[in-house]
Amino acid sequence: MRIMTIKTSLSLLSGLLLLVSCSSGPFASQAPGPGAVVKSFVAVAIQGDIAQMKKYVSKKDVARMEAQEKNNPFSGLGKGMAESMRAQAERELKSKGGVKSIDIDKEQITGDTATVTCIVRFGNGESKSNQVKCVKEEGNWKVQR
């Protein structure tokens, strides 16, 4: 009887380990959906963190961004201009009472593409709605221009 209990326990343990290790099991970790990716992208965009933004953007758009940076004849002025634009954006955000929340209103997925409606709510009560396109690359959702 005791041997049967040990065998049953080992069988249950093996089954549980199989479920946990299986990528399609109930305990499998999944990549964030397009809405979560858009929310993270908007948050780092508001901070003006270009390096972080690139983590959420499609490879095609990252390549385009880097080509523009490289081929820009005014690249020497780029840092000053970028800093000026960042300062202007900070002043605008401050005048609106900062960002109160970033909400996902709608997420429409069709195969490996998605359209996400994101609403940025400001501290002064204003809000701005944007539709953001996403594409799935190597199993991960990315923002696409």
Give a quick summary of the entry.
This protein has helices at residues 2-21, 34-47, 50-55, 59-71, 75-95, and strands at 99-110, 113-122, 127-137, 140-144.
Secondary-structure element order, as H and E? HHHHHEEEE
Proportion of beta-strand residues: 25-35%
The count of helical stretches stands at 5
Q: What is the second-level CATH architecture?
A: Roll
- Could you give a short account of the major beta sheet? 4 strands, antiparallel
* Strand-pairing-aware structural class: alpha+beta
What is the helix content?
40-55%
Strand order of the largest sheet: 1-2-3-4
What is the CATH class designation? Alpha Beta
**What is the CA-based Rg, rounded?**
23 Å
Head-to-tail CA distance between termini? 65 Å
- CATH topology tier name: Nuclear Transport Factor 2, Chain: A
Descriptive labels:
flat; 5 helices; Nuclear Transport Factor 2, Chain: A; alpha+beta; 51% helix; 145 residues
Textual characterization of the structure:
With 145 residues, this protein is of the alpha+beta class. It has one domain (34-144): Nuclear Transport Factor 2, Chain: A. It has 5 helices and 4 strands; from the N terminus they run αααααββββ. It has helices spanning 2-21, 34-47, 50-55, 59-71, 75-95; strands at residues 99-110, 113-122, 127-137, 140-144. It has a 4-stranded antiparallel β-sheet with strand order 1-2-3-4. The longest helix is centred in the middle third of the chain and has 21 residues, at 75-95. The chain is flat, with a radius of gyration of 23 Å. Residues 1-28 have low confidence and may be disordered.
